[in-house]
Write a structure and sequence with these properties.
Largest sheet: 8 strands, mixed
Structural class: alpha/beta
Shape: elongated
Strand content: 5-15%
Number of helices: 12
C-alpha cells in the first residue's frame, strides 16, 4: 500500500467518522418512516420530507428532492421502499454535483496569480481562524509558501489565535496593533508576500454581522486595496460556516453573499453534529461550491469537499 492509499484510507475514515451522527440520525428516521411499507406512497414521501427538513437540508432543497422523487415514482409506476434509498442517494448526488466540481486541484496556483490571495470571511465563532490555520498547513505540506494577514483587528483574540496558528504551521503572520485599519493590514500582507515571491496569502477578516452596511464597506475596501497590488486579488473569497448551527448557517450565508462576492464555502464542525444535511441545502440554495469541510480538531481534518465521497459516506459505502 502506497502513501497515497494510506492517506486516502485515513481521509475516508475521517469522513465516515465525521458524518456518523448525521447518518445515524437520518437513517434511523428513514427506517422508521418506511417500516411496514412496501411501496413509496404519499405517506412515505410526507415522512421523507419531514426527515430531510429536520436534517437541516432546508425547505427549498427538500421540496426540490421530493419533486424529483415524485416524478420518478410516477414514471416507474411502482417503486418499493428498498429502492427509495437508492433513488434518494442519486438525487442528492445529482444536486451536489450541479454546484461542486469533484476534481478541484487546490494546489495548482497559476504563475500569473502569485501571490494567490484568499480572503476569508465569516462570523466569529464558526472556526474561521482555525480553518485558516489548517489551510496554511495544507498549502505548506504541498510545498507552497504561505503568509497570513491578521485583518480582524477588532478582536485581540483573533490576532493572537492567528499568530499561534502561524507558529504551529511555521508561516509568517502580518499584523498591526489592535484597532488598526483592516485594509491597511491586508495591504501590508499582500505587499510583503509579493516582495518575497510567496505563493499564497490568506487574509482573515472581521465577522461582525450586526451592521451589514459597515461589513460590506469594510470587505469592499479590503478587496480594493489588495487588487491594487495584485490585479485580480482576492482570487478567492472563502466563506466559513459552522455546520453544527444548521439553519443559522443558511442565514449567515445569506448575509455574507449579500455583503461580498463569495466564491467558495468551507463548512466546519460537521463531526460534532447530526446536521450534515446543511451541506446539501447550502450548496443547492446559494449555487456556490463547497470547497472544504471540517471534520475534526486535527490539522489534517480539513478536507477538500468531494460530492461523490460525501454521498458515499452518508449512504454508507
Amino acid at each position: 500500500m502506497g502513501l497515497f492509499d494510506i492517506f486516502s484510507k485515513g481521509k475516508k475514515e475521517t469522513l465516515d467518522k465525521g458524518l456518523e451522527k448525521t447518518k445515524e440520525s437520518f437513517f434511523s428516521k428513514l427506517n422508521r418512516a418506511i417500516a411496514g411499507k412496501s411501496k413509496v406512497d404519499d405517506d412515505v414521501l410526507d415522512n421523507l420530507e419531514e426527515i430531510l427538513v429536520s436534517s437541516d437540508v432546508g425547505v427549498d432543497t427538500t421540496l426540490k428532492i421530493i419533486d424529483r422523487i415524485e416524478e420518478r415514482v410516477a414514471r416507474d409506476k411502482y417503486v418499493n421502499t428498498n429502492e427509495l434509498t437508492h433513488i434518494l442517494r442519486e438525487e442528492i448526488a445529482g444536486l451536489l454535483t450541479e454546484n461542486n466540481s469533484t476534481d478541484i486541484d487546490e494546489f495548482a496556483v497559476p504563475e500569473d496569480k502569485r501571490p494567490y490571495v484568499i480572503m476569508v470571511v465569516g462570523v466569529n465563532g464558526v472556526g474561521k481562524t482555525t480553518t485558516i490555520g489548517k489551510l496554511a498547513y495544507r498549502f505548506k505540506q504541498n510545498g507552497l509558501s504561505v503568509y497570513l494577514g491578521a485583518a480582524d483587528t477588532f478582536r485581540a483574540a483573533a490576532v493572537e489565535q492567528l499568530v499561534i496558528w502561524g507558529e504551529r504551521v511555521g508561516v509568517p503572520v502580518i499584523k498591526q496593533k489592535m484597532g488598526s485599519d483592516p485594509a491597511s493590514v491586508a495591504f501590508d500582507a499582500v505587499s510583503s508576500a509579493k516582495a518575497h515571491n510567496v505563493d499564497v496569502v490568506i487574509i482573515d477578516t472581521a465577522g461582525r454581522l450586526h451592521n451589514k452596511a459597515n461589513l460590506m464597506n469594510e470587505l469592499t475596501k479590503i478587496k480594493n486595496v489588495m487588487g491594487k497590488i495584485v490585479p485580480g486579488a482576492p482570487h478567492e473569497v472563502l466563506l466559513v460556516l459552522d455546520g453544527s448551527t444548521g439553519q443559522n448557517a443558511f442565514e449567515q450565508a445569506k448575509q455574507f453573499t449579500a455583503a461580498t462576492d463569495v466564491t467558495a464555502l468551507a463548512i466546519t464542525k460537521l463531526d460534532g453534529t447530526a446536521k450534515g444535511g446543511v451541506v446539501i441545502g447550502i450548496s443547492d440554495q446559494f449555487k456556490i461550491p463547497v470547497k472544504y469541510i471540517g471534520l475534526g480538531e486535527r490539522m489534517e481534518d480539513l478536507q477538500v469537499f468531494n460530492s461523490k465521497e460525501f454521498v458515499d459516506s452518508l449512504f454508507g459505502e
